[in-house]
TrEMBL record:
Enzyme Commission no: 3.1.6.1
Enzyme class: hydrolase
Alphabetic keyword roster: Calcium, Hydrolase, Metal-binding, Signal
Protein name per the record: Arylsulfatase
Entry's Gene Ontology molecular function annotations: arylsulfatase activity; metal ion binding
Family of this protein: Belongs to the sulfatase family.
Cross-referenced InterPro entries: Alkaline_phosphatase_core_sf, Sulfatase, Sulfatase_CS, Sulfatase_N
Domain Sulfatase N-terminal: 28-428
Signal peptide: 1-24
A Pfam short name: Sulfatase
Amino acid sequence: MICYLSRAYFLVSVLFATSVNAWAAKQPNFLVILADDLGYSDLGCYGSEISTPNLDALAENGLKFTQFYNCGRCWPTRASLLSGYYPQQVGRDALPGVDNNARSRGKRPSWARLLPHMLKPRGYRSYHSGKWHIDGSPMGGGFDHSYYFNDYDHYFTPTLHYLDDRQLPAKSLTDNFYATTVIADYAIEFLKQHEEQHPDQPFFEYLAFIAPHFPLQAPAEDIARYQGRYGSGWDELRKERWVKIQKLLGLPGELSSLEPEIGPPYDFPEAIEQLGAGEVNRELAWDSLTTEQQEFQAAKMEIHAAMVDRMDREIGRVIDQIREMGQLDNTVILFFSDNGGSAEIMVRGDGHDPEAMPGSQDSFLCLGPGWSSASNTPFRRHKTWVHEGGIATPLVVHWPDGIHASGELRHTPAHVIDLAPTIVGLAGGEWPSEYADEHLPPNPGRNLAAALGTDVIIPRDALWWYHEGNRALRKDNWKIVAAKGDPWELYDLGTDRAENHDLAEENPEMVKKLKAKWIEVREEFTNLLQAPNTKK
């Protein structure tokens, strides 16, 4: 097995659970907010220059986790969030050596229920608004109402979006539609309906924004807020953010260097040609770029900032609705991102018009490696990699009735697999051992309740990653990591959080030990996927 509980941790958890019962007079509500392709340092409270006052206020009156992890990619992270398992355990990401058609990436096994199903016996109503990107439908996943946005290439004119799994009409520019705002609109509407129709029941709301995922598209007035801000380039921005991160988070080690040899994870040369001479597909020094490249790149970051800024303002509207309901103090709010900033460069949807205003419906721009390296400050690499830049994310937690601390840091390593068992536990439930006469595998996540009360390290055996050949394992402060086809690297994250100093050559025994553990977990997951369903 990959995780074990210590007696000391069990006692701390019991004591915290007891104190939660004393603090909260009733079951808490839950608002889980998920950003898409947001980097570690893209929030003001994590070192950014982007205006995010609503999320900053949640952090100031709640907690910030400094070592929280996702799965490095969109659909694996969402599967883990809603199921409580690693994506490979529930068939939502591939495993090496396992046929892709053999439940390794596709439909979840029948035992893999989602959070709404687990919360329903506790009396919860569940609502979803935004992205989905796992198998099945939101309503089939147990949600009572859902606005499902499934057109990832059009922020202004979507053709695929659904209300309670029923397709809605396509939108045009005359409809004054912007995805980030409309996703918040539906979240607010579901809350209003809940207050009117089910005031005595707690709620679980899953608010899954598309932003700031490409294409970089935002209202012109939002982009104007950042005009001229990024002319100094990503080199300087990374330094600026690192200074703030040291003050706000106290991360150990040094700022990583740019890696000019690292480009997008997927090669689309026709997109580079279509985007023109201003596009740059490497993390190059800013002063090595032409004036045309600098202007083109600065415009892209202005749009990215506008998208994050707008998302924060829409989050503020949702929070205001919960406050108007008198439920803010008793609502657990969790905010994080599905992966790090993205180095991808591609053109999809209706294509890219070079003559169109950057950020408009007719443009299709991506952040690219340079700005992604700034988004992920102070870390190396990007979305799809499992170096810290691909998997480290902010986690902001706010719950006045249950958390007495304000503005404190939590340093325990934690992972998206921990959120489902934490939510179920805070709701007063226990993780099930069976469902529909099927035995469930042991849950790999940890209830983080103890860490909400005090800055304790939640004990676990290890954390494990695999995505598209990229692989990693963290045990205590030791981490091995390797990009696809590369040898293992070894880092002591307790002194070198940004993975600057590879210790593999000087400590081969630790590499051997952690590699064996990585293989052990892989084999455990492989056996689970290939085993027949086990009935009672």
